[in-house]
Automatic annotation (TrEMBL):
It comes from Macaca nemestrina (Pig-tailed macaque). One of its GO terms (biological process) is endocytic recycling. CDD domains: PX_SNX3. This is Sorting nexin-3. It comes from the Eukaryota. It holds the Pfam family PX. Residues 27-151 form the PX domain. It is found in: Cytoplasmic vesicle, Phagosome; Early endosome. One of its GO terms (cellular component) is early endosome membrane. Belongs to the sorting nexin family. The keyword Acetylation applies. GO terms for molecular function: phosphatidylinositol-3-phosphate binding. The gene is SNX3. InterPro entries: PX_dom, PX_dom_sf, PX_SNX3_Vert, Sorting_Nexin. The keyword Ubl conjugation applies.
Length: 162
């Protein structure tokens, strides 16, 4: 009976140059949620967040973009993806109903610590969603990330690779 011997030879690889080692990765999608700004007064007061995208993925029309979004825009994106795609959409950070009650000793949903926690939660959410290959082909995600104004009366469709 023949004895099998494991092949332990190393794979032959080409030498790595500086461009390979320190150049941009072959495919990347970086999304930062930052710079929260609270605007308005009274019941019309809300916080917006800057969404900054850098990518070299061919499915995105812009390689760099910056837009401002509020929490309700994230809710819109989540409901669109749940309705139109086959993606399991992660939850958003909580709505914080108790923080909206009057006569609290703090600023409620406009408290700096709460805004920072929500910002981090929104960044985790959008990075999970946008990192999913099926979600990347949804028009609503592209509008959310790269269009200055979200057209909420859009026709849901898939984005084709460029």
């Amino acid at each position: 009976m023949a004895e099998t011997v494991a092949d332990t030879r190393r794979l032959i690889t080409k030498p790595q140059n500086l461009n390979d080692a320190y150049g941009p990765p072959s495919n990347f999608l970086e999304i930062d949620v930052s710079n929260p700004q609270t605007v308005g007064v009274g019941r019309g007061r809300f916080t917006t967040y800057e969404i900054r995208v850098k990518t070299n993925l061919p499915i995105f029309k812009l390689k760099e973009s910056t837009v401002r979004r509020r929490y309700s825009d994230f809710e819109w994106l989540r409901s669109e993806l749940e309705r139109e795609s086959k993606v399991v959409v992660p939850p958003l950070p909580g709505k914080a109903f108790l923080r909206q009650l009057p006569f609290r000793g703090d600023d409620g949903i406009f408290d700096d610590n709460f805004i920072e926690e929500r910002k981090q939660g929104l960044e985790q959410f959008i990075n999970k969603v946008a990192g999913h290959p099926l979600a990347q082909s949804e028009r609503c995600l592209h509008m959310f990330l790269q269009d200055e104004i979200i057209d909420k009366s859009y026709t849901p469709s898939k984005i084709r690779h460029a």
